[in-house]
Fold this sequence. Notes:
The structure is a single chain. By secondary structure, this protein is of the alpha/beta class. The protein is built from 19 helices and 20 strands. It is globular, with a radius of gyration of 24 Å. The two termini are 21 Å apart. Bound molecules: flavin-adenine dinucleotide and ligand NA7. The site of ligand NA7 has 22 residues, from helix 6.
Amino acid sequence: MSETDAHTERDGATDVDAVVVGAGFSGLYMLHRLREQGFDVRVFEKGDDVGGTWYWNRYPGARCDSESHIYCYSFDEEIRQEWEWSERYPEQPEILSYLQFVADRLDLRRDIAFETEVTGATYDADAATWAVETADGERVTARFFIGAMGCLSEPFRPDFDGLDDFEGDWYHTARWPDEGVDLADEHVGVVGTGSTGIQFISETGGEADHLTVFQRTPNYAVPARNRPLEDDEYEEIRANYDEIWERARDSRLGMPFEHDHYSAASLSEEEIRETLEDRWQQGGFRFLHAFEPGHVLTNAEVNAVISEFIREKLRAKVDDPETAEKLVPTDHPYGAKRPPMDYNDYYRTYNRDDVSLVDVSDDGEPIERVTADGIRTTAGEYELDVLVYATGFDAMTGALLAIDIEGRDGLTLAEKWDAGPRTYLGLMTRGFPNLFTITGPQSPSVLTNMPLSIEQHVEWIADCIAYMDEHGHDAIEPTEAAETQWVTNTNMLADNMLFSEADSWYRGDNIPGKTSVFTPFPGGLDMYRDICDRVAGDDYDGFEFDQVADAPLAGQ
Ligand code: FAD
Ligand code: NA7
C-alpha cells in the first residue's frame, strides 16, 4: 500500500489535511510545522530528493550569496547548534547536505512523494477542499493547498532557432547533471552573465579549451571574499545565535549587518567613497549595507556615486580597455537588477587568452541562431562543442503557473494573473480559498535572505490554520479591497525606488510576452513582518472566512 493509500484510509473526508508542493526550504519546514500541529500532510516533489534549489542547481561554482550562518533555519535550536558550515558562503553540495540532514533529523521523508509532479489543482467550493492531481494520474484531496514550489525554480531557456541542429551538447545550469560535465579540451559557450553565469564563468574559465561568453547585459559583481570559517569564529556565532537571528529578523534584507550610515545624503562624496572602500574589503552583501539598502535604492544621486565606485573597481581588473568597457554596466543603477557576487576574480577571467567575451546586446552582435557547429550572431559564427544556458528562471510566478490551478467559479490562476499577480500579503489570492503561497508574489522573498522570509511565511500560515480550527472556519481568502490595496501599495513602493530603471526578472522582463510588473514586496522584511503580525493580531484583517456545510471536520 502506498503512503497516499494509507492517508486515504485514515480519513474519509479528505485524503489529507494539506498538500504541499515542493521539498526545498519552504516545503520541508511547512511539513514539519503542520505535522507538529497534528495535521496529516502530503508533500509532492518533482526531484528524487529534498533540497529544491540546491538539489537542481549543480553547475560548477554554484554557491549561495547569503552568508552560511544565516542561510539556514533558525527555528530549531538543536539543528542550528549541531550543524557546522565550512565556509563563509556555502557551496551547493553543502547546502544540499544540510537540507538532507534536516529532513533526516525531523523524519520528513516519510510524508514526501518524490519524483511526483503536481500538474493541476481544483477547488471545490461546496466542500471547501482542493483536489490535487499529479503527472502520474494520482488525485489527492486536501483542505489546504500550499505552494512551496519556489520563486526561482522554473528554468528559462531562450528559444533560439536551430537548437535541434546543434551537434554538440547543451545544458541549462539549473538542470546540470549530477555526474558533472567534462569541459576539458572543449570549446564551451555560455549565454548569460547573471549571478549564475558569473559563478560558472569564473569557476570554469581555464578549464575548457576555450570559453566564449555571450553577454547581453553586464552586471555589477562585488567581491564576495569567501573564506573558510575558523573554529573560534563559528563558536562565537553559536554563542550569539539568538541575537544574530533577532537582528536579521528586524532588518530590511533579513541579514544581521549594521550599516555605517543610514543615509549617504548628508555625507560628502569623499566620505561616501571611504565607507564604500571599507565595505568593498568586507565583501558580499555587507557592501550593500554600507548604507541602509532601501536608501541606496531610492536615492538616485547616492546610487550614482556607488555605481561609479563599482565601475572604477571593475575597469581596473581588466587588461584590455575595450573588454573592460563591455563588462562595465552603464545601462542600469546598482541594485536595480539582483546584484551578483564575485567569488573567483570574475573580471580577471577575461584577461586569459582562452576566454573571450561577445557582446550580444542590441548595440553589439545579437544572437541570430544556434547552428550545427555553435552560435551565429549578426557578426559571425562561434564554433562550440558545449553550449551552456545560464539564462535564469521564469521567476516569481513561473512554477506556480506551471500548475493548472482552478479556483472558485472555474477561474484559473493564469487568467486571474494575466496582467500580473494579485495577492494579499503575497500569501493568498482572492477566488482561491485555502491556497497559500510561501514566498508568493508581492511578498519580500527574493529581496531578502530567503530562509528567514520562508520561516516567517510558514509560521504565519500554520498559525492561521490553527486559528481557523479554533474558530470553526472552513475557508479563508482575502477580500477584494485588501488585495487591491496590497497590490497598489507594493507598486507604489516599487515606483519610488530605482527598480524601474532596469529590465529584470524582478519584473518578469526576461520572459518574452510576460507582463512587466515589479513582483516582490520592496518595503523590507521588517516592515512586512510587522504588517503580517498586525493583520493576524487583528483577527486576520483583510481576510474573510467561510463555513461550509460539506466541509471536512476541522483538524481531521
Ligand atoms: P525551492 O528551493 O525552489 O524548492 C521548490 C521545490 O518545488 C523544487 O524542488 C521543485 O522541484 C519543486 N516543485 C516545483 N514545482 C513543482 C510541481 N509542480 N510539482 C512537484 N514539485 C514541484 N536565496 C537567498 O536567500 N540567498 C542566496 O544567496 C540565494 N542564492 C540562490 C542561488 C541560486 C542559483 C538560485 C537558483 C536561488 C538562490 N536563492 C538564494 C533563492 C533560493 O531559491 C531560496 O533561497 C530557497 O532555496 C527557496 O526555497 P523554496 O523551498 O522556497 O524553493
Ligand atoms: P538571471 O539573473 O536571470 O541571468 C540570466 C542571464 O541570461 C542574464 O545575463 C540575461 O541577460 C541572459 N539572457 C537571458 N536570455 C537571453 C537571451 N535571449 N540572449 C542573451 N542573453 C540572455 O539568472 P541567474 O540564474 O543568473 O540568477 C537568477 C537568480 O537565481 C539569482 O538570484 C541567483 O542568485 C539565483 P539580461 O540581463 O536579461 O540582458
